[in-house]
Amino acid sequence: MTLSFDPATVAIPRGHHIGGQYVQLPGAEIEVLRPSDLQHMGMIADGGEAAVQRAVDAAKKALAQSRWAKIAPRDRAAVLMRFAGLIEENATYLGQLEAMGSSRLISMTITRDAVRTAGVVRYYAEFCDKIEGTVTSTEANALSIVKHEPYGIVGAIVPWNFPMITAAWKFAPALAAGNAVVMKTSELTPHSLLALAELAARAGVPAGLFNVVNGYGHTTGAAIVRHPDILKISFTGSTQTGAAIMTLAAQSGIKPVTLELGGKSPQLVLADAGDIDVVAGRVAAAFMDNAGQVCTAGSRLIVEDKIADELVERVIARTKAIKAGPTWDEATTFAPIISRKQLERIDTMVRASISEGASAVTGGTVLEGRNEGSFYAPTVLENVSDDNIGFKEEFFGPVLTVRTFADLDEGLAQAAHPVYGLAASVHTTDLKKALKAADSIEAGMVWINQHGRGPEFTYPAGGYKGSGFGKDMGRAGIEAFLRQKAIWANYA
Predict the structure, then answer these.
(1) Known EC number(s) (predicted)?
(2) pLDDT range class, residue 52, cuts 50, 70, 90
(3) What pTM, to 2 d.p., does this model score?
(4) 266-456 homologous superfamily
(5) Would residue 368 show up in a list of annotated catalytic residues for this protein?
(6) CATH says 7-261+467-487 is which class?
């Protein structure tokens, strides 16, 4: 079966999805372009406070009428299981929307993104009857209970990279915990999430529990954070925006936030890492997948000097083997940059890094002649000092910086970053060295002999320092949408 498709044949959702249906509301119109060719995909309206208020009203009504948080947990799970099943049944359509509107390739969006989105919903559905409290130790004639309760209405703001799966990390545990959700899509990639909201309604998620509103971050996103009836915020995006959300949440009522933010993730490669060709494949994929538009992208290669030249040579060979093209062509292996604005930002940063002393051993240019889309050549930079912009800031594009070290302690020192601490990887066949490195690296996620999450949902995602706090995924992912209540009964 071929996965390639004609974008003109795919139906595009229109409007916000509020109260279980598509809703047209007034607002400044935003044109959504396909990154592969910068052609028109659809129009959305910047919902702002009006759309958020309508979504909150729908959420309040749904919570009251459905008693979603009070129904038998297995009944809640059954609804979410139906939702997961519908996602799988509609994986082709969802994957096509995701491929057209984002930088995700059709070779990935159906079999990975859509299927894993269903998997996340199913994973958290299974948590519904496993939300348990505790009885704490007390003196005689007293009973101390700690129970977990949903917040009520929670807000979620998701980025343009991996739109479906990142959204699922938030709406699935929030719904499983008994909350209603008001979620803002990125204005660049709204359509697949709107389609998911429609499937949720078809699955029997009570109308108003899963609402999706469109708009800009500074208007619609800010309205979500400010709203007094939205009691918890979960955000994935840049460190700068995360800081702004923290400030706004504090100014508008003191509400908890979960932030999964930017990264400058190191790939620490030891000389005993094993087959160097296999390692080169891992390293290259870690900064080129999705054209580097991944929060956890392995953008810093730190390699033992004994193998550095050979490893870099093999990584460069992989940068030459890409096939850049439309996301809806299954033969494409290299994705576009999400927008011209982001393309120009990456190019400006690379040029600034070079002007500050770095050298480009490959790439460093815009890829022209790719259907008018936004493509940037995979780039490898050397001689990037600590005060170079290429070290200090996140490219969020297919750019790798290279440094070498002579011993493990030196490599670990180079792996540290003053601002970011999202993820890291260690490549070695020596388990003792691997675990020492994992213990030493200051990051929320450390992989050994791989880079990136893979298909597992069981362990948490989140960072240290400027990469955020709080967790998505795993048990921590549902705990993020529950608050604790302590009950003390004196029966003396």
Answers:
(1) 1.2.1.-
(2) very high
(3) 0.96
(4) Aldehyde Dehydrogenase; Chain A, domain 2 (3.40.309.10)
(5) no
(6) alpha beta
